[in-house]
Amino acid sequence: MSELITEIFPVNREALPPLAGYLLDLTTDDDPARIGGRLAYELRRRTGGHWFWSRPSRHLVGDQLYTVEQLKQLCRDLWSAPNGVFGGLRTIQLDEQWQAGPGEQADYVALGLADELAEELKQALQPFHEELPPALEIWRLYHLRGWLVQGEPAISLSVSSQPVLKQNLRSFCQSFAWQTLAELEEHLRDLRVKAKDGDLCGSIVRVTGQLATERQRLLALATRESSRRRLEQAQDEEAVVLVETASGKGYEYPLSGLRIVVQPGHYKRLGLDGCRVQSHLHLAPAQRAAMVRSLAQPLQKRRLLKSRAYSTQRAPRLFQRGADLGFVPRLRVGQNHIIEGENGLIADLEQYGFYRPTPQLACKAALRIGLILAGDLPQAHLKAAAHTLKEAFQKFRATVQFSLKRLPHNSREALEQVIATLEKERAVDALLAFLPDREAQPLQREEASRKPWTLYHQFKAITVGNDIPSQVVLFSTLKGLDFAAANIALGLLSKMGGIPYVLAEPLPYADVIVGIDIARRLKTTLPGSVNLTAQTRIFQSDGQLLQYRIADAIIDGETIPTEVLQQLFPQTLFAGKRVLIQRDGPYRGREKQDLQEWAQRIGATFLLVEVIKQGAPRLYGFQPASGRAAATRAERVAAAVARSGSYRPSPSSQQLEDITLPPKGSAMLLSDYEALLVSTLPPSSAATPEPLHIRSEPPFSIREALHSVLALTLLHAGSLRPPRLPISIHYSDELGGLALVGIRPKSAEGTRPFWL
C-alpha cells in the first residue's frame, strides 16, 4: 500500500514576528473584507510592512505598531485616495486585547509575506515554464494559502498552468482585418487577458476608445511607472479596452499592455490545437511534486516551514483511505443483482438490466428518438453514428427508431419548427441534436447575464422548457463515438425516467439526501438587490431520485426568505426525517442558521455538508524508495556534485520518481469537521486529481460526510465514469447558469433528471 503526502507544510511559529490586530470603523454598508483587503494593499505599498485582512477575526493584521495619532493621520491620508475608495472609513483602532491565533499566523505567511516572497517563488518555477512553438508559452503559477491542521498553522504550496500567447494583444489585432472600433470589439470581446505589468487578469468587456483621446486620463490613473512609460510611448491610434476582473471591477489598458490568456473555448478562435495545448496543461504527480518542492525551498531558507510536507509517514493519524471510511463501491442493478467495484458496468447492465427500466419501454416495442442535425455532416458519418448509437441502446435492452431532420439554418425558429414536426409526425420520446462545437459553449453562472446564446442554449430552452428528454452530441464527440455512445444512451434513458443502478446499501445516517445550489446575480434595475435561483435535488438514501425543486426570489443581502426554504424543503416531505444536505460551495450569510431553524420547526434533523470544488491542495501517492533505488539516486547526485560542485536537475528530469497517483478515497483530516478528499481519479496518470474540500457542521462527523460524497459519486447516470462531484450537486454550475437566464422545466418541481 502506497503512502500519502500533501502540498501542505506546517508553519514555524518561532520564525514569525509579533502581530497586531486593528479594527475598522465604517460609516457605510461596504463589505469590511473588501475595504480591509484594499487597506492592507495600500499599507504594504506605503509602509513596506506586511499586512493582510483576516476574514475569520475581521481584523486588519500587520507586523507594525501604530500610535493613535499615526492612525488618525493615516486615515486622513487615505480619505484623499482616488475614487473615494476609503471615504467610508471612519477610524482605524489598535485592538489591544487581540492576539494572533494559528489561523492568522498561517495567513501572515501566505498573505502578509506574499509580496516579499513573490519574486523568489516566480524564479523557483521559471525552469518549469514551457514553450509550444510557434505561438504559445505555458507558464506555471504558484498559489499560497493558509490552513489550520488540527489547530496548528500551515500553508499549502500549489501550482497551476496558464497558457499565454507570446505576442501582445496589439500584435494579435494586426493578424485580422478590422476598420472600426466596433468591429475590433466583436473580435476581442470575452477574450481573457493579463497585464504585462502586474498580476491583473480578467476578460475584455468592450473597447473604450483610442489613446489619442484617452491617454491623459489613463496617465493620471496609472500607479506603476512601467505602465506610465507604456502609455507615453504607445501610438495615438492604439485602442484601449476595458478588462473586467473576477471581482467585477473594470480596468482600462492599451492593447500593447496586455497578453492573451488562452481559454479552452477559444482554441479554434486563436488558431490553436486544443488537444496539444491540453496535454501540456496537465501535470503528472511527479512533475507537480517537483514544482512544489522547488517552491518550498525559499520558505525553508527563511525557516518559515517547521518541517517537510504532511504525510502518512510523519502524521499517520491525519490520513484516511476509502476503506477506513467504510466506503466500498457496491451497486444494485436489475434483478436485484449486486455488483462490486466500479468497472464492468456495461456488461452487468447488459446482463441484468436497469434497476428500474425506462417507463416507456413497458408499453412500446421501440423508443422513437428524433435526430436533429445542425451543419454539414457527411451522410456516411451520419449513418455510422446512428448505427453505433442503436447498438449502444440495445446493450441497455432498449430498441430505438431514429427519425432525422436537418436544420435549414441555425436559429431558434428553425429548431422550433423541426421539433414541432418531429413531435407531430413521429410522436418522439426524446431528441438528440448533433451540433458543431462552436454552437455548444455552456453558460457558467458568472457568465449567464452577458454571454450570447448559442444553438445549444436555444435547443435546451425549447426541450427543457417543454419537458422533452434531450441530449446534445458535438461533432467532435462523433469522431470518438465508439467510446461515448454508451454514455449518451445511458444518459438519455435516465432522462426518460430509467434508473440504471442504486447504492447496494442505503446510507445508514440519512433518510433523505438533498443537493442544494444557490445561484445569485446582481439585479441591475434594483441596486443592491440580487436575483436568487435555488435548486434542490432530492434522493432516497439509496440514491434514487425523488424529485427536484426550483425556487426564485429577489433578495437584499444574503438571507434566503423563509418562503423559499419552505418551497425547497416542504414539511410534507421532510418532517421528522434525517436529511443530509450537500451544498455546492460554502454556506453563505445566514443559510446554515435559516436551515437549522426550519428543521427545528418541522421536527427534522438537517446534516449540513459543504463541498468546495476549487482551491484544495493536492494529495499524492508515495512509494518510499527501496534500498537499491535510493542508493542509485544517491550515486547520481554524488556524481553530479563531483562534476560541478552542485546538483540541479534539468526541468525535463526534475521529477520525483516515487510520487504517484493517490488511491480514490484518500483523505486528509484537517479537523474533526474538515478534510480534503480525492473523490475520483483522472482518466490518465498524466494528470493529478484535484481534491474536494469538505466541511461538515457539528455534530455530523467529517468521516460520514466523506463517506456520503464518495458513495454518491458512484451514481451519475449520465456517464459510466464516476464524476468528481456527488450526483446531488453534479452540473451545478451549468444548471445555475441556465436557470439564471430562464432555461428550466415548465414546473418548479419534477421527477426526471433533465440535467444529466
Give a description of the structure:
- By secondary structure, the protein is an alpha+beta fold.
- Among the domains are: 11-121, no CATH class; 133-285, PAZ domain superfamily (PAZ domain fold, Roll), CATH 2.30.340; 357-498, Rossmann fold (3-Layer(aba) Sandwich), CATH 3.40.50.2300; 625-650.
- Helices cover 32% and strands 26% of the residues.
- The strands form 6 sheets. Strands 15-30-31-32-27-26-23-24-25-33 form a 10-stranded mixed beta sheet, sandwiched between helices. Strands 2, 7, 8, 9, 10, 11, 12, 13 and 14 form a 9-stranded antiparallel beta sheet that branches.
- Strand 30 and strand 31 (674-677) form a beta hairpin.
- Helix 12 packs across helix 16.
- It is globular.
- Residues 630-654 have low confidence and may be disordered.
Task: Summarize the SSE layout with pairings.
Layout: E1 3-6, E2 8-10, E3 20-26, H1 32-47, E4 51-54, E5 59-62, H2 68-79, E6 89-94, H3 102-112, H4 114-125, E7 130-132, E8 136-149, E9 152-168, H5 169-173, H6 181-188, E10 192-195, E11 201-210, H7 211-221, H8 225-233, E12 239-244, E13 250-254, E14 258-261, H9 274-281, H10 285-301, E15 319-320, E16 330-332, E17 338-340, H11 345-352, E18 367-373, H12 379-395, E19 400-406, H13 412-426, E20 430-435, H14 455-465, E21 470-474, H15 475-479, H16 481-495, E22 502-503, E23 512-522, E24 529-540, E25 545-556, H17 562-568, H18 571-574, E26 578-584, H19 591-602, E27 605-612, E28 619-622, H20 627-644, E29 659-660, E30 667-671, E31 674-677, E32 692-696, H21 702-712, H22 732-740, E33 749-750
Parallel strand pairs: 18-19, 18-20, 20-21, 23-26, 26-27
Antiparallel strand pairs: 1-28, 2-9, 3-5, 3-6, 4-5, 7-8, 8-9, 9-14, 10-11, 10-14, 11-12, 12-13, 15-30, 16-17, 16-22, 23-24, 24-25, 25-33, 27-32, 28-29, 30-31, 31-32
Helix pairs in contact: 4-10, 7-8, 12-16
